[in-house]
Design a protein that fits this description.
33% helix
Length: 60
């Protein structure tokens, strides 16, 4: 049977200019501000959004 490892993986640090929306830090930075969220979501779904309601951020 396989062993389960308790080793925590250290996140890889990237220079800021290499971050993309798929990196957790950049995703949270964009999604934290309604001025950023609305245009991004409209671009992704291809529709205009009337209102954005922010909810609590991710909890650890």
């Amino acid at each position: 049977m396989g062993r389960i490892s308790n080793i925590k993986k250290t996140p890889i640090k990237k220079p800021f200019d290499e971050l993309t929306i798929t990196d957790n830090y950049m995703f949270q930075a964009v999604m934290r501000n309604v001025k950023n969220v609305k245009p991004l979501l409209e671009m992704v779904i291809g529709k205009k959004i009337r209102k954005i309601v922010l909810v609590d951020t991710e909890k650890t």
